Amino acid sequence: MEVMEVFLQQLINGVSLGSIYALIALGYTMVYGIVQLINFAHGDVYMVGAYLGFFATAILGWSFLPALLMSMFVCACLGVTIEKLAYKPLRMAPRIAALITAIGVSLFLGYGMMLLVGPQVRTFPQVLTEVQWKLFGSITVTNRQVIILVVTIALMLLLQYIVHKTMIGKAMRAVSHDKQAAQLMGINVNNTISATFAIGSSLAAAAGVLVGIYYNAINPLMGIMPGLKAFVAAVLGGIGIIPGAMTGGFLLGIVEAMVSGYGKSLYRDPVAFIILIIILIVKPAGLFGKNIREKV
Amino acid sequence: MLKVDDIHVYYGAIHAIKGISLEVPQGKIVTLIGANGAGKTTTLNTICGLIKPKTGKVYFEDKDITGVATQEIVKRGLTQVPEGRRIFANMPIYENLELGAYLKKDKKEVAESMERVYKRFPRLLERKNQLAGSLSGGEQQMLAMGRALMSKPRLLLLDEPSMGLSPILVKEIFSIIKELNEQGTTILLVEQNAKMALSIAHKAM
Ligand SMILES: Nc1ncnc2c1ncn2[C@@H]1O[C@H](COP(=O)(O)OP(=O)(O)OP(=O)(O)O)[C@@H](O)[C@H]1O
Ligand SMILES: [Mg+2]
Hints:
The structure holds 2 protein chains of 2 kinds. By secondary structure, chain A is mainly alpha-helical. Helix content of chain A is 72%, strand content 3%. Chain A has a two-stranded antiparallel sheet. In chain A, strands 2-3 form a two-stranded antiparallel ribbon. The longest helix of chain A is centred in the first third of the chain and has 33 residues. In chain B, strand 7, helix 7 and strand 8 form a beta-alpha-beta unit. Chains A and B meet through helix 6 and helix 7 of A and helix 2 and helix 3 of B. Magnesium ion binds next to helix 1 of chain B.
């Protein structure tokens, strides 16, 4: 293949991978924005989402869309429960306590799932028969890639609508800016935080289901690496900033695909973390961040 | 209308308020004056339910509101314009005002309240799509007051509204406070600017 063709093909692949990272990164960034917590259990919520999608399609025989919606709904409840049980009691505690708890919740979900369904890799059923389209030259795009992108963009538009146009979205922004002032408006801070966890977790669940139909294989520890990568994506865009997480996710996906495409797939994972280190050194606030962002 | 009965408030081990009692009669302006660190802000925050007192009671319109959640207290018609304004700087002015009416579900009522606020503070209307953080100090104070008025409070707590403002603006803010009071809002005012505050107050503590 010519260099240009490799580039375009990997760009297409990278957009699919980046959609997944972006959806997960949104939850990281929204939760950080509102409670200043890096929710390390977030990648495992994505894993649970993938298993719910598997359960619905492989065992119940549902089609793609109902499976997606069910998984998003159940994970929204899971996210709210995690926050109430694990993080809320620590809201006044030093940040490190909540961070360690988040790692604990992550391990609990990952290994709890392993106990429940076994450690083996599961193969997602072919909910969507793959159709491949030739664009030009040797460049192809599949119906699954198109669906990933369409679902991701639809969810992002919906999220932007919620955050900017609805009262709960305005409340979320108010609480993330100043909790006490938000309370004086009559905003229920606890409910608003719950809503944020619900939305973030349902986006992660969507990513889990999409990954299931794209790569076909899921396992109980599948959340760890994409979770970390999505965290890198959120930091890359500027943690706490929603458009930053979207951009960071797509950028990271595309960079990874390029690295693999030019024959260095072994370097795929290190590249993500090298990006993290470079960002932390050069622009710690991220691409979209202002350089003074430590909030009260 | 408001009665604070011997409250003691702690921040961890710090005993910030050692027994404060006060009363605000309906329709009046009452001023609370005290040195820096005396606990004025803490008192207002305790009334609003942002902090819970260790002992003592707060009554609003003869009902015990000690330990009641802030959103519930706001719903009952008591709100505060906090010290340092605390506007939502990264949101436009009109969104700040919308948030002030967060508990009002009737869209028409909210639109009317907003019109009233814009009428009282025309400068906010001119800049309604501008980010609140870009306003001058005086305009920010007006926004903070307008935002609080959106919930149509019967009792309004104001924490140092004149802080950092030029004498002309201070005069303007105080005349607005007086006007609000004449139109039926009861006011509890915390001030360092004792002279100005006493000139409009019915009662000082
Ligand atoms: N969040 C807090 N944590 C610990 N101590 C606090 C906190 N807030 C206030 N304090 C302490 O409580 C006391 C009362 O503070 P408060 O802010 O109520 O005083 P104030 O009368 O409003 O002062 P000022 O005129 O400077 O605004 C002070 O000694 C202050 O240091
Ligand atoms: Mg004070």
